[in-house]
Specification:
The complex is a heterodimer of chains A (211) and B (324). Chain A is an alpha+beta fold and 211 residues long. Chain A is built from 8 helices and 5 strands, in the order H-H-E-E-H-E-E-E-H-H-H-H-H. Chain A folds into 2 domains: 116 residues, Roll (Ubiquitin-like (UB roll)); 80 residues, [2Fe-2S]-binding domain (DNA polymerase, domain 1, Orthogonal Bundle), CATH 1.10.150.120. With 324 residues, chain B is of the alpha+beta class. The chains are: A alpha+beta (211), B alpha+beta (324). At the A-B interface, strand 4, helix 6 and helix 7 of A face strand 1, helix 2, helix 3, helix 5 and helix 6 of B.
Chain lengths: 211, 324
């Protein structure tokens, strides 16, 4: 259990903050805080590698991989859109495979190798897919873009590995690099701005198809 | 999300024993459905047992000529397995018709079987739901039932089972292999695995406290034309309105299961027997005793047409085979 002192301190801190800001927002924050405190969190250590760097964290077991990356490792490239695995903004690569980092607990990734958008490339040395998104204007607001790019890189690897999709005409022959294949495989990444056609062109360029 | 303690299991028997001995414990594998439900506090386990390290992730041939699929085989890997693609094509097709690439990379074979309904009223804690809060009532009864079930349902619950994979496995006569808290294994035919809601829609399957799925066993390949057709509101990444998984032999006989219409993948002996007669007859047998609601009654003709289309596709596939 959390001691009463600690609880009082945190509530006071929130209320002080509320005084400075005024309005209903901070009061709601205090209510949520109280609920969380009653939960007596379980803390646990976990080690994994992020973008080639070994990291060790002590986390509340409830922490999603996404929150560990964003809030504890300050890797804010991966985005929180829906937090329910529906939008794909949080897509990262774990052991080379794309997953929704919002639907995975950080403590379940002991020993894993994680790659985020920051690990794919950086300004000055962009990953070819990042450069292609720029070249083809594959975004507007950019919020879904890190997830789109991580997914796009993984999609081409999945095609390379011969993994079939819902639209593959044959299960016994290798899938082709058709637009239908790319569209189907990217359906787990939603773009509110509707940059889909330019995302498709960026992917086709990297896949070696004329855009 | 409610706080929980977490442990990593080191063997299937230990996992089952720990789950049975720990109050309010749950197994976690892919986590793609469980964590979603925990965020909404629809699932509130006090303890999670991570089974990802148990090594149940291979697909092995059985002495009978079938396949034994480890509980932890990811949906992507099962769909892409060369033997599954060649001999159980409807299973590959069903898996690929479900979820998104990201989710299929995480979701497991056992987890897919055990996923919960996507009924919007089950997902909304402000609404009464006999499955989520037994005895609270069913908001779907007076609500929007377009996605919901019409056969096998009860006055308590009209939710559908959301899996595509399980529909194909039902057509294939798959068998679930488990290990209990006593360390003893048993096999349950998928046909007997899911319970109908009746007055206890919160009880969805036949597993005992702590019992862990270790594998799903497929009987030897059936040959024939293997088809999975899914009708949904958009072309990709959506749950089904109606699905059909079928294996059709050159003489027109075969077997068929349907999804999107019932609390479990729906297979009826009389429907299999009606396959040579056509989609309307098969559909009528599947929907015997159906209790449609005004806004899901459209699933009756939709199912008949989907079966008719599947049978036409089977004839086309067999025609091509004879020409080649």
């Amino acid at each position: 259990m959390i001691g009463g002192d600690e609880f009082d301190i945190s509530r006071r801190a929130v209320l002080l903050g509320g005084g400075a800001l005024a309005g209903a927002g901070p009061v709601r924050a205090a209510t949520r805080k109280e609920t969380d405190m009653q939960d007596s969190p379980t803390m646990m250590e976990v080690s994994f590698s992020v973008n080639g760097e070994a990291r060790r964290l002590r986390l509340d077991t409830r922490t999603s991989l996404l929150d560990a990356l964003r809030e504890h490792l300050q890797l804010t490239g991966s985005k929180k859109g829906c937090d329910h695995g529906q939008c794909g903004a949080c897509t990262v690569l774990v052991q080379g495979r794309r997953i929704n980092s919002c639907l995975s607990l950080a403590v379940m990734h002991e020993g894993d190798e994680i790659t985020t958008i920051e690990g794919l490339g950086q300004p000055g040395e962009l990953h070819p897919m990042q450069a292609a998104f720029l070249h083809h204007d594959g975004f507007q607001c950019g919020y879904c873009t890190p997830g789109q790019i991580c997914s796009a890189v993984a999609v081409l690897a999945e095609l390379q590995a011969g993994i079939p999709s819902h639209v593959s005409p044959s299960l016994t022959e290798a899938p082709t690099l058709s637009e239908a294949e790319l569209r189907e495989r990217m359906s787990g990444n939603i773009c509110r701005c509707g940059a889909y056609s330019n995302i498709m062109e960026a992917m086709r360029e990297i896949a070696g198809e004329p855009a | 999300m409610k706080a929980f303690t977490y442990s990593r299991a080191s063997s299937p028997a230990e996992a089952a024993a720990e789950a049975a001995a720990t109050p309010n414990a749950k197994f976690i594998a892919g986590g793609t459905n469980l964590l979603d439900l925990m965020k909404l506090q629809i699932e509130t386990p006090a303890h999670l047992i991570d089974v990802n390290g148990l090594g149940l992730d291979s697909i092995e041939p059985t002495p009978e000529g079938g396949l034994r699929i480890g509980a932890l085989v990811r949906n992507t890997d099962l769909a892409a397995d060369a033997r599954v693609r060649r001999d159980y094509a409807l299973l590959s097709r069903a898996l690929l018709a479900g979820a998104s690439g990201q989710l299929r990379n995480k979701a497991t074979t056992a987890g897919n079987l055990l996923q919960r309904t996507r009924c919007v009223y089950f997902y909304d804690p402000r609404q009464p739901c006999n499955k989520r809060a037994p005895g609270s009532g069913c908001a779907a009864m007076g609500g929007v039932a377009r996605q919901l079930g019409l056969v096998g349902v009860s006055e308590s619950c009209i939710a559908t089972h959301p899996s595509d994979m399980a529909v194909a496995m039902m057509a294939l006569d798959a068998v679930v292999e488990t290990i209990g808290a006593d360390g003893i294994s048993r096999r349950i035919a998928l046909q007997d695995f899911y319970r109908l809601p009746g007055e206890t829609p919160q009880i969805e399957h036949d597993l005992r406290p702590g019992e862990l799925i270790q594998a799903v066993i497929l009987p030897p390949p059936l040959g024939g034309a293997q088809i999975y057709r899914k009708v949904r509101d958009r072309a990709s990444y959506a749950f089904a309105l109606v699905t059909v998984a079928a294996v059709i032999q050159p003489d027109g006989s075969g077997r068929l299961a349907a999804g999107g219409i019932a609390p479990r993948p729906w297979r009826v002996e009389a429907a299999d027997a009606a396959l040579p007669q056509g989609g309307a007859e098969v559909s009528a047998a599947l929907l015997d005793g159906a209790r449609p609601r005004p806004d899901n009654a459209f699933k009756q003709p939709l199912l008949a047409r989907t079966i008719t289309a599947a049978l036409a596709q089977a004839r086309e596939m067999q025609g091509k085979e004879m020409m080649s």
